[in-house]
Amino acid sequence: MRSETNNLEAFWMPFTANRQFKQKPRMLVAAEGMHYTTDDGRQILDGTAGLWCVNAGHKRPKIVEAIQKQAAELDYAPAFQMGHPKAFELASKLAAMAPQGMDHVFFTNSGSESVETALKIALAYHRARGDAGRTRLIGRERGYHGVNFGGISVGGIVANRKSFGTLLTGVDHMRHTHDPDRNAFTRGQPEHGAEFADDLERICALHDPSTIAAVIVEPMAGSTGVLMPPKGYLERLRAICDKHGILLIFDEVITGFGRLGSPFAADHFGVTPDLITTAKGLTNGVIPMGAVLAKKEIYDAFMTGPENMIELFHGYTYSGNPIACATALATLETYQEEGLLTRAAELDGYWADALHSLRDCPNVIDIRNMGLIGAIELSPIEGAPTKRAFQAFLDAYEQGLLIRTTGDTIALSPPLIIEKSHIDFLFDTLRNVLTNLD
Ligand SMILES: Cc1ncc(COP(=O)(O)O)c(C=O)c1O
């Protein structure tokens, strides 16, 4: 246990094995570029961009300066019935870089809040159009949409749902797309599984499509262990939604801002949803912020009635916070100047070769990749699921590499500034870790 002034007990850590951590803490005290510094002075290569968010790497000068400047100029402005220039500038820039037709931006403070916001907009949109019977929300098994009640209701990760009651009513789930029998060790999009999208037709037949407001999916499912959409799957979802007048929401909290080699996954897959949720890479993870991008038709549907009336009864005290906006603007500039939103596409081949070279390591049962994302699925220890991958996480950290694990899958998502020499270090270290793992 540390000194009284830095007692570890009080902080109830999120998504963390608190007792294990507090016995042997892993403490980061500084970061720059691709590396963290630990409290015992070691350099740790960031193989996860923090939590999939530090896309431009750490301590970027433009971002640091923008925060300092904004804090000294306008620290806060009320988010309701008042404005400040940077929120409008940022919204315009986001709309300009968003897929065609997504012209409007609603600011939030996290991915979870973006999800709640998008679900609420979807419901309210149908009501505003006089189609108030559309109240059902459809998610997917294994989906992750943050931790608030809407998000865990449409989400499909059992551990995130089972302790929290009956959740939202009127929610259903499509089946997930993981099919290792047919698709194991695929590079990029799997060949097999477009037909999983037809599960939406089954749900439409069960509930009647006229009761369904929206379908939400991660175009690439990250937190469940990195599942790529099969070829043709997203296109088919889009077609079914169009056929039945259902809104399609892409949760791009992870895939937004260059992770797959395009600004958004919607660009990457050539499928445009009606709403996109973002957060994380929007501010390089430095200041909490999220944004929901909406099609013009959706925004326009609300712009009716008396002009003095609030059109959407939703928003957060920190929606479009000036410091968050300044951070996001500096982040977007950094992405642009350094070509980071397409850099993952340039490195894809080198990254995939290095990743898939681990195929012969013990216990590896699948490897998946796309852009600067990699997943290595390990066979679980019998009777102790997750233990093998978690040990890999601990060993990698000891050897100077931060990875992330979910279940028995190791997920990799480094900052987009990664160089080939870092990729070599990352996979050499992982090979060593996996080779010596029980
Ligand atoms: C797809 C997706 N949606 C939502 C979230 C929640 O974001 P936050 O943790 O910022 O609330 C995440 C976080 O990993 C995510 O991956």
Notes on the protein architecture:
The chain is an alpha/beta fold. The protein has 2 domains: 4-55 and 340-435, Alpha-Beta Complex (Aspartate Aminotransferase, domain 1), CATH 3.90.1150; 64-338, Type I PLP-dependent aspartate aminotransferase-like (Major domain) (Aspartate Aminotransferase, domain 2), CATH 3.40.640.10. It has 16 helices and 15 strands. It has helices at residues 18-23, 49-52, 61-73, 85-97, 111-128, 149-154, 158-161, 180-183, 199-207, 233-244, 265-269, 296-302, 322-338, 343-356, 387-398, 420-435; strands at 28-32, 35-38, 43-46, 104-108, 136-140, 171-174, 212-217, 247-251, 275-278, 290-294, 364-370, 373-378, 401-402, 404-406, 409-412. The strands form 3 sheets. A 7-stranded mixed sheet has the order 4-10-9-8-7-5-6, with helices on both faces. Strand 7, helix 10 (233-244) and strand 8 (247-251) form a beta-alpha-beta unit. Helix 3 packs antiparallel against helix 13 and helix 5 packs across helix 12. The longest helix has 18 residues, at 111-128. The radius of gyration is 22 Å and the shape is globular. The protein starts with 17 loop residues before the first helix and ends with a helix. The mean pLDDT is 97. The site of pyridoxal-5'-phosphate has 14 residues, from helix 5.
Summarize the structure.
This protein has 438 residues and is an alpha/beta fold.
What is the element layout, followed by pairings?
Blueprint: H1 18-23, E1 28-32, E2 35-38, E3 43-46, H2 49-52, H3 61-73, H4 85-97, E4 104-108, H5 111-128, E5 136-140, H6 149-154, H7 158-161, E6 171-174, H8 180-183, H9 199-207, E7 212-217, H10 233-244, E8 247-251, H11 265-269, E9 275-278, E10 290-294, H12 296-302, H13 322-338, H14 343-356, E11 364-370, E12 373-378, H15 387-398, E13 401-402, E14 404-406, E15 409-412, H16 420-435
Parallel strand pairs: 3-13, 5-6, 5-7, 7-8, 8-9
Antiparallel strand pairs: 1-2, 2-3, 4-10, 9-10, 11-12, 12-15, 14-15
The structure holds pyridoxal-5'-phosphate (PLP).
